[in-house]
Amino acid sequence: MEITLLLLVGAAVLLLCIFFYYCPFFLWISARVSGVKISLIQLVLMRIRTVPAAVIVRALIEAHKAGLQDVSRDELEAHYLAGGNPERVVHALVSAAKANIPLGFKMATAIDLAGRDVFQAVQMSVNPKVIDTPPVTAVAKDGIQLIAKARVTVRANIHQLVGGAGEDTVLARVGEGIVSSIGSSVSHKQVLENPDSISKLVLSKGLDSGTAFEILSIDIADIDIGKNIGAVLQIDQAQADKNIAQAKAEERRAMAIALEQEMKAKAQEARAKVIEAEAELPRAMAAAFASGNLGIMDYYRLKNVEADTRMRTSLADGDALDSPTR
Question: Which of 3, 19, 63, 310 stands 20 to 30 A from 35 (CA)?
Fold first, then answer.
């Protein structure tokens, strides 16, 4: 008998749990007390559709208390089923209404579904955000390298959050503007004297076009002097010219050596021909004697001429050797 009673009590408790899960009676009472018109059947249907009724009801209560009239239960459910965050959307709508920022429910849900934090965007519209740029390196016209850091104050542009570029694009454009501004300066001293000229030039280019932000100000936080890029480039160019000149000189030297070797080869060839001709001379003289074209007196006169030539050559060589000591 006691076991049967316990089973009945357990079954009753289980039925009550199932009933209160699918029929959130206390949540319905909370909504009605807060002034939100929603039926108990609608809450049951939310459970069946696996929609968290507590989230929807809390969002409806917040919107009702803030006086938002364009927020309905069906739209919040549809936004949740689409993968959005109804509570964050309502938070953003309430904040925008208090700050007099024009933001509708459709725009807020579109921003949320786009993957952006719509509540944070509204907060950034009220309280601008400061973004520090990484060090930007640029070279002035006098060849001196400058390293600049800037602080960009931006405010969220609600109407550009869907499809607008993010912070990375803003930083890239600001860096490009700083490089262009420094590069157009005649001297690096001019940039150091008037760093605000960089800010004015960068701001005048409208870098926030097509982005999800509105640039309020660009302040140069620090400028450091880097290398003398102009001198480095001149040294590199001089070294390259030197290497080219050395290569050309080496080419001319190689050609001169080749020409010298060729002339030596030709001289050796001519000397060989002379030696060969001198070797044929006794044979020719013998043939001349045999044929009678050369007489004995002619032979002796030839020998005298050779002896006289050798004497003159030796005397000339002796004079050349003695000339430095005179």
Answer: 19
